[in-house]
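User: Show me sequence and structure for the first protein, then do the same for the second.

Assistant: Starting with the first protein.
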Amino acid sequence: MNTTRASGLRANELAGNIRPQDDLFGHVNQRWIEATPIPADRGRYGAFDIVAERAEAQLRELLESAARDRPHGPPGEPGVAAGPNDVDGLRDMVGALYASMLQEARCDALGLAPVEADLGRIEAAQDVRALWSELGRMQREGIGGAVGAWVATDDRASDQYIVYLQQSGLGLPDESYYHDSAHADVLQKYAAHLRNVFALIGSADPGAEAAAVLALETRLASGHWDRVAARDSVKSYTKMTLGARSVLRLTRSTNWWSASPVICGRCRQRRATSRCKPGGPGPGPASSVPTRRTCTRPWLPSTSTSTCAS
């Protein structure tokens, strides 16, 4: 009985004119590269981009189907009754949410009402500490700010979770757009976009506010690593403690840790000594998380470590 199994490789897609021992990448990929042009609106293109496009098309089909088939109710209002093929009501909820985003007239009528509370909190932040606290609150709601923060396993200690910090705060793709003459046209159009945004939210002086934002982002960009440096996994692994001689010492003037109870607060009680939730993100935005920890301050662990990936 022949038990030989096929390899799964499509030999007809390999470049026969390129020997694998000379150029394995070319041998495997050259035919695909020649047959797959980069779309005009892309700077790069690969198999994962194609997969992502197919997934987005499939998701759109599912969303449109859910919105079309949901029971009739007030336009864009969630919380409708479950349909016959939707036992738990989740499909109808998703359909309602998607349908609500397509109600352009209703969105225009609502204006800024849905975000007035958020705008009010931002306006109320009159000093650096209050600003960082608000940035931390928005981070937990999925809105990025001056610093990117997320929890993952430590790259060099896979039995621990750790909070990573990364440079952020720019509206353009990277720091080069703020000083490289090759991007001057994009920068000019971005400035116009900012003025339009401030005009839409009712600013008394859209031009001045847009200029202030652009100046701030330009200053942030001057301290950012470029793309090559940021991709360096060795250079970007700068593990630190939260003690006075490390992260807090480097950033004392910004008081960014005032946002930590909001970003990653996992201490059950704010008191001098409290127990952090095992296995979750640490109580400070720059802390690693062993399975047990005692916080010696409301949100700053005394012996934690961190990775600041710039």
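Switching to the second protein now.
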Amino acid sequence: METANALACLDGFPASGRRVAQQLKSSLAEVGHPEVFGQVLKLMGAETFENEITTQWIDAWVEDFESASELSAHPELGEARKNYYLGGFQSTLEDSSTVDILWPMLSTWDRAVHVLQTAEKESNYWADVKRTLRLSEEHTEQRESELEDLMDHSEEVLENWAETAGA
């Protein structure tokens, strides 16, 4: 995400928050490189993310988030943040593509799962989510290759921009 955001910054501020996908998509299109957003989606396993599982995953996310919240005082796992992200998920699902919730969902879910694991508790869903999105260990080599491709492409875009802008 940070690699793509570096390119998005050529047009303005970095994309962030619960609408990061929409902002990133727009900024990358504005700088003339919408294909980078596709590469980011591919890295997250978006091609396997189906609309039918979205509601189930949101429910599972809530369960893990709440369990982690009980174990941690981290502000990112507080009730207000849960509601902030849930509101974003629901709004995005009404207005946009389902895959646009993937990054904020995965990044916050990963944080919650880390807290659960630290407390020697398990998520009942996380392994399935990673397997479905092909983010599990058996897909590491493929994802590393895709990440390398994204980084190489981004480096080329930045070098071209620097040459054109005289930077």
